[in-house]
Amino acid sequence: MIRAVDLGFGNVKAISPARQIEYPSAIGTFRPVRFTTGMEAQELKEKLCVEFEGKRYFIGDIAYTQAAPRVTMNSKRFTSSEGLALMISALILLAKSQIEEIKLVAGLPVNEYAGLKEDYKNTLKSSHYIKLISTDGKESEFYRFEIEEVRVLPQPIGTLFNAVLDDTGQLADKKLAGSRLAVIDIGKHTVDLILTDGLVFVDKSSTSYNDLGLYESYKDICLVLKDTGYDIAPDSLEPFIRGKRTLPDLPQIKEMAFANLAEKIVTRVINAWPDLFTFDRIYITGGGSEVVGSYIAKALECSQIMINDNATMTNCKGFYKYGKRVFE
User: How confident is the model over 87-112, as a mean pLDDT?
Assistant: First the structure.
């Protein structure tokens, strides 16, 4: 069976034929929760706890409420035990049974792709054993995933595959596929740019920026909040950004920080793509597109720009369509 998993620095996204799921790329050391009210969220991804390679973790949303969440921001996360725990946990949420044989499509940031592709592929292509545990640590379910085949793609190429392929993996728009197509992928910790010409990857015009992304705005927001008496670390800001918790004046502070980030991204885009007027279409995607996409589109003044709907899932949707093309 085909699975697509996009392990981003901000969120893990995953797709099967039956489901689409997303949760924060946050992981924390597990400790048993001593009491439950019985009124907690019942959805599994809201209380995801696992044991993997001999260690127990809180995964995703629960890591923010029950632990000091760790959000690793370098390339080592993809092949580390914690990174694999985030990845394999997604397969639990998609699973139809506790033992599954899988053909997997995954992704890497543009600048990490060449150096990590083979190592990541070999790490994923294996038997993975993981336990789903209850929040009190007393109950567990064993899962085994036999990942038989793996394709690893540059993450933003998923957006283009989503645009040009249909749900069976066939070319849906040959004219579009033959065009010059670009992607601005705005994640939590990175901004990736890619260009294809007739679906040929244009390497010289494709890159990653690890000093941009929404996290830079989070740091700016936290500095302002500290001046107003709220000392919050950027790694703990996510629940406030997503509206699960509130702070005075946060909407105005966010707006200023995101506008500043958009200005920085536009400068990088113009420097990387001085010929962007020759592009047939530019897609703005990734979770950050929801908050800074309109700023960027307005600043670039390009009629061919498109801001993707449900942009956090777009790369993963393209991964899945590509999986249908190469595995079936």
Answer: 95
**3-state class percentages of the chain: helix first, strand second, coil last, to nearest 5:** 40, 30, 30
Sheet holding 2-7, edge to edge: 20-24, 11-15, 2-7, 99-108, 140-154, 127-133, 48-52, 55-59, 27-29
| 3-state class (DSSP) for residue 37 | coil
Domains 2-154 and 157-215+228-313 share a fold: yes
CA distance 128 to 17: 21
The CATH code that applies to domain 157-215+228-313 is 3.30.420.40
Kindly indicate the confidence band of residue 30, based on its pLDDT and cuts at 50, 70 and 90. Answer: very high
Rounded to whole angstroms, the Cα distance separating 81 from 86 reads 9
* Of 302 and 326, the one with more pLDDT: 326
d(C-alpha 119, C-alpha 78), whole Å: 10
Q: What is the pLDDT of residue 74?
A: 66
**Is residue 162 a contact partner of residue 321, using CB atoms and an 8 Å limit?**
yes
* DSSP state letters, 55-122: EEEEETHHHHHHS--B---SGGGGTSHHHHHHHHHHHHHH-SSSEEEEEEEEEE-HHHHHHHHHHHHH
Residue type, 291: V
Rounded to whole angstroms, how far apart are CA atoms 131 and 117?
27
Tell me the CATH number for domain 2-154: 3.30.420.40
Confidence of residue 249 (pLDDT cuts 50, 70, 90): confident
Cα separations in angstroms, 315 against 66, 237, 311? 30, 25, 8
Backbone angles phi, psi at 306, to 5 degrees: -125, 130
Domain ranges of the chain: 2-154, 157-215+228-313
Instruction: Say what the pLDDT of residue 325 is.
Output: 96
CA distances from 6 to 11, 23, 179 (A): 8, 11, 25
Give yes or no for a contact between 165 and 173, defined as CB atoms under 8 angstroms apart: no
